[in-house]
Fold:
Amino acid sequence: MPTIPELVERSARAYGPRTAVVDGDRRLTFSEVGDRSGRLANVLAGLTAEPGARVAILMRNRLEYVECDFAVARAGMVKVPVNPRLSDDKRRYLLDDSGAGVLITEVAERSRVAELVAELERPPTIIDI
Structure:
């Protein structure tokens, strides 16, 4: 059975110019998803070489979420989804309990997230997308 990274790479080669993700008026092709998730996977691997490291994703349902989801899998890491509708206390608990070393979020959440992680014993590295 193929892994998620294998499926992403195979789809990018086989369906390159076809539309893979639609978010309102924005669209990404299979090639673009493959390229962009691969670049982000390299960034994640550069932040921590630990296999199985936790990466939290705090993001609304949008095109970039797909890229982040694939990037985490391609980097051999474990995704910790954090629902944007959660209270700060619940977000803090999820980040602390999971031990996420990286938090990928959207620019709109940046200031709220910065305050939240400042209170953690081991604050994750924050990536804005």
About this structure: Residues 30-47 form the longest helix (18 residues). Helices lie at 4-15, 30-47, 63-74, 88-98, 110-118. The mean pLDDT is 95. The two ends are 31 Å apart (CA to CA).
